[in-house]
């Protein structure tokens, strides 16, 4: 029995979590789901965005399934990633069948370093001057670069591309680039190259097929993964996993999206595909594939939420997917 800590969180997090739970319950796997609070509402209720009980439960569970946090995201999900040392954030950008998007057929994976960079929270302010400290270490860079190459090997991917800005941030990005080049030498069967982050953004928009696996630092990874989500149909479709040695947190790339929260129109696909990443993590490959195929079939049949042009509600979409799993 795997223990899953479920944190719906804020905004559309709750709505898409209901949808994903409907699918997971339908699969009837040996998972024990325990629900916990975190986010803006927890902050108001308990004075803590990430209550101790939630953090403890996440530490003790086999996996965390997370919806979204609003204004308190830094105190909740960024902290959770650091506390649980989930050092790799895996963000696939894959065009699903039936999606009308900029790049049908695109299938890339972004491997984002998850524990350092500007996300360490070292910000200072004095007398109208503000500073942020960017931390990049050899150890974390080696670990994430190796993870990217191992993922490429495991998934039969041909190429790893490192993104950085080593011409300006000579020390931090310079170290990251050099370490990626060193690790690349250990994997002669996998092609490697690196780009400056700004050029890479242009290439991603104009010719994304030149990428396969992207490895990059925390902040750049956050930005390019939203960009990549836009290439394949938007944030409503983009799943992600945070993986460490012992713990794993599964969360969609999108946030609380308060502009559409409470209306029942959020696309639950990102959250459902996130649950599929959790299934794969535990070795339920067939179940994950079945759910993914069901999602694709529903989308192909033209039944979608408003972000993809139709008018299904979040739960109607989830019910359509669930009905294909009988
Ligand atoms: P964060 O900074 O945590 O990523 P954010 O509030 O800046 O969060 P998101 O919540 O990720 O941004 O979403 C940006 C916009 O994308 C939303 O305002 C919404 O319009 C759209 N969006 C995001 N997720 C979904 C979804 N699941 N379904 C439909 N639209 C979505």
Task: Write structural notes for this entry.
- With 326 residues, the chain is α/β, with parallel strands linked by helices.
- It has helices at residues 12-27, 40-46, 52-60, 73-83, 138-154, 172-184, 197-206, 218-231, 269-281, 285-300, 314-323; strands spanning 2-9, 31-35, 63-68, 88-94, 107-113, 123-126, 129-132, 159-164, 191-196, 213-216, 241-243, 248-250.
- The longest helix is centred in the middle third of the chain and has 17 residues, at 138-154.
- It binds adenosine-5'-triphosphate.
- The site of adenosine-5'-triphosphate has 15 residues, from α1.
- Adenosine-5'-triphosphate binds at residues 12, 16, 73, 235-236, 254-257, 259-260, 266-267, 270, 307.
Helix-strand layout with pairing:
Elements: E1 2-9, H1 12-27, E2 31-35, H2 40-46, H3 52-60, E3 63-68, H4 73-83, E4 88-94, E5 107-113, E6 123-126, E7 129-132, H5 138-154, E8 159-164, H6 172-184, E9 191-196, H7 197-206, E10 213-216, H8 218-231, E11 241-243, E12 248-250, H9 269-281, H10 285-300, H11 314-323
Residues 12, 16, 73, 235-236, 254-257, 259-260, 266-267, 270, 307 line the site of adenosine-5'-triphosphate.
């Amino acid at each position: 029995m795997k223990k899953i800590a479920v944190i719906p969180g804020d905004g559309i997090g709750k709505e898409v979590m209901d949808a994903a739970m409907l699918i997971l319950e339908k699969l009837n796997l040996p998972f024990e789901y325990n629900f916990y609070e975190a986010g803006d509402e927890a902050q108001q209720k308990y004075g803590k965005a990430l209550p101790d009980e939630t953090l403890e439960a996440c530490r003790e569970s086999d996996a965390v399934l997370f919806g979204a946090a609003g204004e308190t995201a830094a105190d909740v999900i960024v902290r959770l990633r650091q506390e649980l040392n989930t050092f790799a954030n895996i963000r696939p950008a894959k065009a699903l069948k039936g999606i009308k998007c900029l790049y049908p057929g695109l299938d890339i994976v972004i491997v984002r370093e998850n524990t350092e960079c500007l996300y360490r929270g070292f910000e200072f302010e004095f007398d109208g001057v503000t500073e942020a400290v960017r931390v990049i270490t050899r150890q974390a860079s080696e670990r994430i670069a190796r993870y990217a190459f191992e993922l490429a090997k495991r998934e039969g991917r041909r190429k790893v591309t490192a993104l950085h800005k080593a011409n300006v941030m000579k020390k931090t990005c310079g170290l990251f680039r050099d370490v990626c080049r060193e690790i690349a030498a250990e994997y002669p069967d996998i092609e490697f190259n690196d780009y400056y982050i700004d050029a890479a953004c242009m290439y991603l928009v104009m010719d994304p097929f030149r990428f396969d696996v992207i490895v990059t630092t925390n902040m750049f990874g956050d930005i390019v993964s939203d960009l990549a989500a836009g290439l394949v149909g938007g944030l409503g479709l983009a799943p992600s996993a945070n993986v460490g040695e012992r713990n794993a947190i599964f969360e969609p790339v999108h946030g609380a999206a308060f502009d559409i929260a409470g209306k029942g129109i959020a696309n639950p696909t990102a959250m459902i595909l996130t649950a599929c990443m959790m299934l794969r993590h535990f070795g339920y490959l067939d179940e994950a594939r079945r759910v993914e195929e069901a999602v694709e079939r529903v989308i192909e049949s033209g039944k979608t939420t408003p972000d993809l042009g139709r008018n299904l509600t979040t739960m109607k979409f989830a019910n359509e997917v669930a009905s294909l799993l009988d």
